[in-house]
Design a protein that fits this description.
By secondary structure, the protein is mainly α. The chain is built from 6 helices and no strands. It is globular, with a radius of gyration of 17 Å. The N and C termini lie far apart (34 Å).
């Protein structure tokens, strides 16, 4: 796999007013999700990281991460799009890349035994997720909230509520500890 590096623009703070566009809701979903993924994978990025820390991260990626990705892609599937061909292609490709990386994890038997390969894989996964979040916020973020289908609104608001609840829960403990203990 080839890693492509770039710097994403800083995220704007989210305030409590009702959304006028879908962007505000996406930012409420993405900021805590990116933080959680980074915190879950961080312990595995050190040379002395053990098999169990990588195994815990794999469990998280196979369950919580994969479920959240599916829920977001489902919620965004029916959002009206007035995208350029390039924007549509980028969103499709990033969504498919995240799905493929997530599915590929299932076939990497023993990955938790190979620190360097695991680090490379998770770096690419995090980068793909960052690009997905940024691209959806930029391209779909301009869609007026009242133009989003009701079912998609419900799914997106649920994701935002879940993200806020997880963020509140993990403020007292590291997400890896929370995941292992099954709290939240």
């Amino acid at each position: 796999m080839t890693t492509i590096g770039c710097t994403l623009p800083a995220r704007r703070p989210v305030v409590g007013a009702a959304p006028t566009t879908i962007r505000r809701v996406l930012e409420r979903i993405h900021a805590p999700w990116l933080k959680e993924v980074a915190e879950m994978l961080e312990p595995t990025q050190h040379e002395d990281a053990g098999v169990w820390s990588r195994w815990n991260a794999i469990r998280y990626l196979n369950s919580t991460f994969a479920e959240r990705l599916l829920r977001e892609r489902t919620a965004l599937a029916d959002v009206p799009r007035t995208l350029t061909d390039s924007e549509a292609t980028t969103l499709w490709a990033l969504g498919e890349l995240l799905d493929l990386l997530s599915d590929h994890l299932q076939h990497l038997v023993g990955l938790c035994q190979h620190g360097a390969e695991f680090t490379s894989f998770t770096r690419e996964l995090r980068q793909a997720l960052e690009h997905w979040c940024h691209s959806t916020e930029e391209t779909l973020g301009r869609v007026a909230w009242d133009k989003v289908p009701r079912q998609s609104q419900k799914l997106l608001l649920r994701l935002a509520q879940d993200a806020a609840a997880r963020e509140a829960c993990t403020s007292d403990q590291h997400p890896a500890q929370e995941y292992q203990s099954g709290t939240c």
